[in-house]
Amino acid sequence: MTGGVGFLLLPPLMQIYGRRFINVIMNLVIFIGWVIIALSPNVPTIIAGRTIQGLSFGGLYICSILAGEYSHPKRRGFFIIFKISATGIGELICHGFGFSLSWRQMAWLASAPPALAALGTAVWPESPQWLAYKGRFDECVTSFEWLRGNGMEAQKELKEMITAQQELRNMKKLKKSGALMRNLQAMKSKEFLKPFTVVL
């Protein structure tokens, strides 16, 4: 159930706080959930650990966008398929260890991947697309060149991305200014001034 909450909650949080920060938090939440389960003295604590994890597990399906934003267009399909395959392989490995390890040992073992993922993600550059979306174009260029280099093809993609975001930001500004002018015009109309005068 909490997976559905995470699925709905994480996309807007990623837009506000960035891909990297939210991805680190997601992995830390999963790690904390496994630690709670490993140390749990009773069933309600296990349920609490799984409930906490659900918030992040729901967002793992959304994280395919990271492969799209961080990787070369020609390799994005491979990384997305690899992510899906890795999930299945991880489940298979866990079931294999389950024959010889206790559930507490399994919980400790399962806590390692999200901890490593959080540490690894913390040293990534932020997503160039998100930086461009926020209007932080200098940081966007630095991040993009760190990830993709500065070859002709990469520079062309970078220029197109920044241009598209600049046009989008200009359109939003025009819409806001247009809405303000409409409100000012409405305040000058008789329909607004008559009741306003009566109130005064």
TrEMBL record:
This is Major facilitator superfamily (MFS) profile domain-containing protein. It comes from the Eukaryota. Signal peptide: none annotated. Gene3D superfamilies: MFS general substrate transporter like domains. SUPFAM superfamilies: MFS general substrate transporter. The lineage of its organism: Eukaryota, Metazoa, Ecdysozoa, Arthropoda, Hexapoda. It is found in: Membrane. One of its GO terms (molecular function) is transmembrane transporter activity. Residues 1-200 form the Major facilitator superfamily (MFS) profile domain. It is a multi-pass membrane protein. GO terms for cellular component: membrane. InterPro entries: MFS_dom, MFS_sugar_transport-like, MFS_trans_sf, MFS_Trehalose_Transporter. The chain crosses the membrane at residues 21-40, 46-68, 80-100. Keywords: Membrane, Transmembrane, Transmembrane helix.
